[in-house]
């Protein structure tokens, strides 16, 4: 006689990335007793976001039957790790895959902090002329699960659980990976609200920075609904130049962008907007432009982050000379703005600003970089894996 076995559904729902209310609703839909839903949701939330549990079976204070129910309906899957590369300066880059597409996350350790650079999209629609990601054809929005999942994978790989520990390795999150976060507002918002939940991943919203190329109508919403710190990829002081290097400027001009910055909630000397300015030789790096820059942002509590241009194969620009960057920085400093020059990190593994690009072409690109880059940024052999 043949026995008929009940076959569990092949697909279960991922709980990562749901809001707390969404999680409670998922439990309700799975038949959890109404009186227990809130308590169960709180317990799960704690296991997932404080302890980083990836498997219901490890949730030792929950009844066995409940854990089995959960495993039948749900999963806690992170994106798949395709490769992990470690730079000679300690920067780590993960190439991740979900839904058949790949995207990258970068961890940058410093003496006083650890910054995780998170992607919001696969690829990017903006086509900034100096950015490698903009040359990638395929674009889709990352889901809240994929965005939060990047933080969770980094915590997994850096042994950085529980979220309540002192001296955590990841202290800051910057939405400065692939993609334009304000073109994926709803998902980025949902993910960042989870990231800043004090009973969960517990990253302070001040230590979360969203960087935008200037999607002006969404800036006020980011301030009101996410409340994180803001960075603006300014890169030029005149519309004619910015129209070329950041084509989004044709839609939203510098003056409108700066008006939106002036209205950003909660600004003070302790809470400044960061203006990013990539140093492109002969394009935007004259000392007259340094003076125009400080005049332009007058009245806005601001930091100016000068970013040496990071090369990539086929890039139409080169980095400004170091002396020029120093003179530019001095003008900005003398006007009273902190203007740290961002030390390029992880260039050897193509993890520096503007170098992220996840597709199979990458290997060839890296080979070419290896051939052309200077000795200081030669490919490290230790810890490197081919994608
Ligand atoms: N789309 C958002 C998030 C990306 S942030 C934004 O534009 O802000 C990535 C930062 O690196 C941006 O300031 C970007 O302008 C900068 N960048 C891009 N390509 C670069 C390169 N090749 N060298 C240095 N910085 C670069």
Brief description of this entry?
Helix content is 31%, strand content 16%.
Look at the helices and sheets and give the structural class: alpha/beta
- Spans of at least 5 consecutive residues whose pLDDT stays below 50 are 360-387
Instruction: Find the CATH topology of the largest domain.
Output: TIM Barrel
Using the 3D structure, state the CATH architecture of the largest domain.
Answer: Alpha-Beta Barrel
Beta strand %? 15-25%
- What string gives the helices and strands in order? EHHHEEEEEEEHEHEHEHHEHEHH
Q: Rounded to an integer, what's the Rg over CA atoms? A: 22 Å
Number of helices: 11
Query: Main sheet: which strands, in order across?
Result: 3-4-5-6-9-10-11-12-13
Net shape: elongated
Q: Could you give me the name of the CATH homologous superfamily of the largest domain?
A: Aldolase class I
Q: Span between N and C termini?
A: 50 Å
Classified by CATH, the class of the largest domain is Alpha Beta
Sheet having the most strands: 9 strands, mixed
Task: Break the fold down into its secondary structure elements and pairings.
Layout: E1 13-14, H1 20-29, H2 37-50, H3 64-73, E2 74-75, E3 80-86, E4 92-98, E5 101-109, E6 114-117, E7 121-122, E8 140-141, H4 144-157, E9 172-175, H5 185-195, E10 208-212, H6 216-226, E11 229-233, H7 239-245, H8 254-262, E12 273-279, H9 287-296, E13 302-308, H10 322-334, H11 361-372
Parallel strand pairs: 1-2, 6-9, 9-10, 10-11, 11-12, 12-13
Antiparallel strand pairs: 3-4, 4-5, 5-6, 7-8
């Amino acid at each position: 006689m043949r026995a008929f076995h009940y076959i569990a559904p092949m697909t279960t729902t991922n709980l990562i990335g749901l809001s707390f209310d969404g999680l409670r609703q998922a439990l309700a839909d799975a038949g959890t007793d109404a009186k227990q839903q809130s308590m169960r949701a709180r317990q799960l939330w704690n296991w997932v976001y404080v302890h980083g549990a990836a498997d219901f079976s490890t949730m030792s204070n929950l009844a066995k039957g409940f854990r089995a129910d959960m495993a039948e309906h749900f999963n806690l899957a992170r994106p798949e790790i395709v490769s992990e590369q470690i730079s000679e300066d300690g920067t780590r880059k993960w190439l991740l895959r979900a839904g058949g597409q790949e995207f990258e996350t970068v961890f940058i350790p410093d003496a006083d902090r650890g910054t995780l650079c998170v992607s919001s999209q696969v690829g990017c629609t903006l086509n900034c002329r100096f950015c490698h990601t903009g040359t990638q054809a395929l674009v889709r929005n990352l889901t809240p699960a994929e965005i939060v999942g990047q933080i969770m994978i980094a915590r997994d790989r850096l042994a950085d659980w529980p979220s309540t520990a002192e001296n955590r390795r990841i202290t800051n999150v910057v939405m400065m990976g692939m993609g334009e976060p304000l073109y994926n507002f709803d998902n980025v918002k949902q993910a960042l609200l989870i990231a800043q939940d004090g009973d969960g991943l517990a990253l302070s919203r001040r230590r979360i920075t969203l960087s935008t190329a200037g999607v002006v109508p969404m800036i006020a919403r980011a301030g009101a609904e996410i409340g994180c710190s803001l960075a603006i990829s300014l890169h030029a002081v005149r519309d004619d130049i910015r129209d070329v290097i950041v084509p989004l400027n044709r839609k939203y001009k510098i003056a409108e962008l700066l008006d939106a910055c002036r209205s950003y909630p909660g600004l003070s000397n302790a809470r400044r907007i960061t203006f990013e300015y990539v140093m492109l030789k002969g394009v935007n790096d004259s000392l007259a432009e340094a003076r125009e820059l400080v005049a332009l942002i007058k009245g806005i509590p601001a930091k100016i982050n000068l970013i040496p241009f990071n090369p990539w194969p086929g890039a139409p620009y080169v980095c400004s000379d170091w002396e020029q960057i120093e003179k530019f920085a001095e003008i900005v400093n003398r006007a009273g703005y902190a203007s740290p020059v961002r030390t390029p990190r992880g260039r050897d593994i193509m993890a520096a600003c503007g170098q992220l690009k996840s597709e199979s072409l990458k290997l060839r690109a890296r080979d070419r970089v290896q051939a052309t880059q200077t000795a200081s940024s030669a490919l490290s052999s230790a810890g490197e894996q081919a994608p």
